[in-house]
Amino acid sequence: MLDLLKSIIYGLLLLLPISNPVFTMILYLGLSERISDKEHLVIARKTARNTFITMAVVYYTGSILISGLGISMPGLRISGGLIILFMGFRMLFPPAKSEQTMNPHGSDDIDISLVPLAIPGTVGPGTMAVIISYASTLNNGMMFSSLSISVAPILVFVIVSLLIWVGVQSSNAIIKKLGSHGVQAISKILGFVLISMGVQFVINGIYKVLLIWESLV
């Protein structure tokens, strides 16, 4: 039992700083201006579910998919950066209301619980790399028991997903206090931050590609 607890703490120490549930909550604040109270609950639940599923898929199949499909970590960083760039521009320069496709509740038809909240908001390229590293440590190392290897990852992903659910759920109360103008201001600021992060992701990805190219020539 102590070994299981150690492996869970180890996984949380690896994942929480980079998955950052607080960032997911702030990201949601910038995207939720036209979402009804009922939809807040649905999105919180779906975001937690999508986060758990994504983490589990990456843990169990990440290294196989990446090697099998020939996807490199720099490629993941660049693609993740482009997604963040798109969302940042969308938040900083939102389309006119007449250009948006609205459902009866007043929110966009796009399901933000998967992209960008779960991917890449919570499970971005960095988180994927950490999860794959975590899987390698548990499966190849001698420091954890077979019970820890089987149970710990699921419990770690459940805890992270619950924290995401709490963060997104509590955003509803924050939105009500801020009002529409406050949410718009946060959306603009966060849009600029996301653009900067997206550019940095792309730069880091290109830098890694150049390093690999330099080592080959």
Q: Which keywords apply here?
A:
flat; mainly alpha; 7 helices; 217 residues
**CA-based gyration radius:** 19 Å
Q: What's the average pLDDT? A: 79
Largest sheet: none
* Tally of DSSP helical segments: 7
Query: Percentage of helical residues?
Result: over 70%
N- to C-terminal distance: 50 Å
Rough shape?
Answer: flat
Order of helices and strands: HHHHHHH
How many E strands? 0
Provide the β-strand percentage band.
Answer: under 5%
Which structural class is indicated by helix and strand composition?
Answer: mainly alpha
Low-confidence stretches: 98-108
Per-chain topology:
Layout: H1 2-19, H2 21-31, H3 37-69, H4 73-92, H5 113-122, H6 125-140, H7 146-216
Helix pairs in contact: 1-6, 1-7, 2-5, 2-7, 3-5, 3-6, 3-7, 4-5, 4-7
Structure description:
It is a single chain. The protein has 217 residues and is an all-alpha fold. Helices cover 82% and strands 0% of the residues. The protein is built from 7 helices and no strands. It has helices at 2-19, 21-31, 37-69, 73-92, 113-122, 125-140, 146-216. Residues 98-108 have low confidence and may be disordered.
